[in-house]
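Troubleshooting: if your tokenizer reports a length mismatch, compare against these two reference records.
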Amino acid sequence: MLEEKGFNIEEMYRFEKTFQFDSWCNRMKLTEKEKNDLTEYMLHATLNIKKKFHIEVIENTIISFKGEAIIIKARKI
């Protein structure tokens, strides 16, 4: 998408990052219903999904999960 808008990608780094669940939900501006739905989905996810995202649960509360983040250095051509 950046290239389509006339940017040249000079560097790109992709890495795993731990996200604190509550603060992530707030940054994503999830409604209370969306947060509850996501919580239920994550609590009842398959073992493979829980392992993939390193979902940390304490007393039925999601504490954190891992996802991918990206840093891109690009210049307008």
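Reference record two:
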Amino acid sequence: MTVIEDLTRRNADFAAHRFIPGLRINPSRRTMIIGCVDPRVDPGVVLGMELGEAAIIRNVGGRVTPAVFKTMAMLGRVGKANGGGPGSDWNLVVLHHTDCGMTDLAAFPDLLAEYFEIPADLLPDKEVSDPHASVKVDTALLAAPGSPAHGWQVSGLVYDVETGLVKVVATDV
């Protein structure tokens, strides 16, 4: 069986047993999650989210970058166009994790500087080698005036890939 055959078989099972018709485009839990693309750390699965409960943005390291801000602004417009959208009653969760591949990229400062769209001499401020510190950096960025999430309830979690547990590192930033 090819990968595509397996995926379409799995989709048929999903459609038959777990699909929820009638979901709205705005998340029912008024929650947005920013997480890593690491296949061990699917934010929806790790946090026990059901389909339709949260908007999830994934990128390398689950980091807040200019691209994330642009995505959040676009999602806000889509939400408002559909009768709701992000606001002060929303939760924004930043989920970083242990053993993240982002730490391997510390040896490539030019690549990271481009990713964050900052000069390389500012990279130490991003704390790429420590998920507990990096989640604090990112939640502070999101809570800052001018951020698309300013005024939201912002929290930062670190997922331990060895235990499966999350630790709250920053809350109501």
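Descriptive notes for reference record two:
- The CA atoms of residues 15 and 70 lie 32 Å apart.
- The first strand starts at residue 31 and ends at 36.
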